[in-house]
Amino acid sequence: MNKEFLIITFLSNSQSASLQRGNVYAKNATYEQKRAFQKDFRMRLRVLESCYMQSVSDEDHFRTIEGFANQLSQAHSTALANGRLRIGTAQKAVNLFLKFLWSIGVVPEPPHCPIDRNVLTKIGISKNWTELDNIEEYKSIIGTIRQKAGQQTPARWEYDLWNKMAEQSGEANAWPAYLDFS
To answer: Tens digits of per-residue pLDDT, 97-109?
Structure first.
């Protein structure tokens, strides 16, 4: 029961973090269209739990992100701005959900990390992640992260980066040490 509660929370947080800043919806999208999209969005994320029970290659992960964007775009084009869910939004949702699952030991370490403004700034890229809509550009960003991460994997590098930022902002001190999932 606790695991299911956490997974539902992870779905909600992944949806929120990836959709709230990206001007995802068409201006004329109805409430019903948005709700149908959100339900499908969460359902497709949930399927990833079983797909990532074992390690996944970079190429398979690239296909997952691109497929997530394309399938939701095809199914919900009337609800989406320009009829499309962008790669930047898709990667944020997929990578963040997998990061959450990894943090509680449900899946092994994911091949990539959630790319957002903080990550892009740290690797010297000024592009807005919400505007990213090209899988080749995404692959290039992952390559740059791998270079910056050195011996660390992208997932571990971003995890450490996020924790350092939380510590510097004082957020890390709000959690008792026994809740550290590392």
So the answer is: 999 999 999 999 9
Residue type, 9: T
Q: Tell me the residue range of the domain where 73 lies.
A: 2-20+27-179
Quote the number of domains for the chain.
Answer: 1
Tokens read off for 121: 């700034």
Q: Would the pTM of this model clear 0.70, i.e. be above it? A: yes
Secondary structure of the chain in HEC code, one letter for each residue: CHHHHHHHHHHHHHHHHHHCCCCCECCCCCHHHHHHHHHHHHHHHHHHHHHCCCCCCHHHHHHHHHHHHHHHHHHCCCCEHHHCCCHHHHHHHHHHHHHHHHHCCCCCCCCCCCCCHHHHHHCCCCCCHHHCCCHHHHHHHHHHHHHHHCCCCHHHHHHHHHHHHHHHHCCHHHCCHHHCCC
Classify burial at 18, counting beta carbons within 10 Å of its beta carbon; exposed 0-12, middle 13-18, buried 19 or more. buried
Residues facing residue 80 across a β-bridge? 25
Backbone angles phi, psi at 127, to 5 degrees: -70, 150
Closest alpha carbon to 20 in 105, 125, 76, 93: 93
